[in-house]
Amino acid sequence: MAYNDPNWVSEDALAALNMEKQVHSDEDNAALARRIFMEQAPLAASRIAHLAAHANSEQVALRAATYITDRVLGKIGEDTDGVDPLAQFLADMTSNAEQHANKRV
């Protein structure tokens, strides 16, 4: 829900968070936050990819596309330990596709 979503009820969100703390009583606040972020990461990634492809604003689409490119290939000028990020990305994609294809056989 967006922060301006009329269905957002902060008391409900706090109650849900308190329930999370009770269920996962072994986690400190930092671990709880990391777990929540990890659980939401696929949705966040999907949203960013959708914005890159379908945003109404060219600026938003460019920023989303740049973010994705930087995360996958690395920012220009970053130290990559001599490994070409694009070549590594393509090699990983090829390897994953081959593994997937071999599982179907």
Description:
There is one protein chain. With 105 residues, the protein is mostly helical. The protein has 2 domains: 1-73, no CATH class; 80-105. The protein has 4 helices and no strands. It has helices at 10-23, 29-54, 58-73, 85-104. The radius of gyration is 19 Å and the shape is extended.
- Helix count equals 4
How many strand units?
0
User: In the residues, how many domains can be counted?
Assistant: 2
The structure class reads mainly alpha
| Proportion of residues in β-strands | under 5%
Q: What overall form do the CA principal axes indicate?
A: extended
The succession of helices and strands, N to C, reads HHHH
Largest sheet: none
Query: Which value, in Å, is the CA radius of gyration?
Result: 19 Å
Oligomer: single chain
Termini separation: 42 Å
The average pLDDT is 84
Low-pLDDT parts are: none
Residues in helices, as a percent range: over 70%
Name a few traits of the molecule:
105 residues; mainly alpha; 2 domains; 72% helix; extended
Provide a brief overview of the structure.
Helices cover 72% and strands 0% of the residues.
Task: Give the helices and strands, then pairings.
Elements: H1 10-23, H2 29-54, H3 58-73, H4 85-104
Helix pairs in contact: 2-3
